[in-house]
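Methods — Computational structure assignment.
A single polypeptide chain was analysed. Its primary sequence is given first, followed by the predicted tertiary structure written as C-alpha cells.
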Amino acid sequence: QVQLVESGGGLVQAGGSLRLSCAASGSIFSIVAMGWYRQAPGKQRELVAVTTTPTGTHYADSVKGRFTISRDNAKNTVLLQMNNLKPEDTALYYCNAELDSGVGPYRDYWGQGTQVTVSS
C-alpha cells in the first residue's frame, strides 16, 4: 500500500537546474534508504544518489558536485537538487525507497518515473 509520487522533471537547457521531489505515503515505520535512479534509452538503470540510514549519502561519480540529495523524514520525502545539468543527464528518473513497515522484512518500492531532458 506504499506509493511513491514523483514530480519536478522537465526540459531544461544545459547549465540549468531542476529539483526532483519524491514523497512516500502509506504504511511506513521508517525509511531505510531513499534516492534516485535514472535510465536513458539503450542504457541500463543506474544509481544517481541515495540517502541511507545510518550510512549516509552516496552519489554517482557523474553527478558529484552538481546534484544534492536531501531527505525530510517527517514528510517521507526526498529531494534531488540538480544543478549545472548536462545533456548526458537526460533520462527517466525513478524514485526508489527501501522502507520498514514495522513488521516483516524491508520492502523496495519504485515510482513511475519523471522525465528529465537537457538540451545542448
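Note: DSSP finds no helices and eleven strands in the chain.
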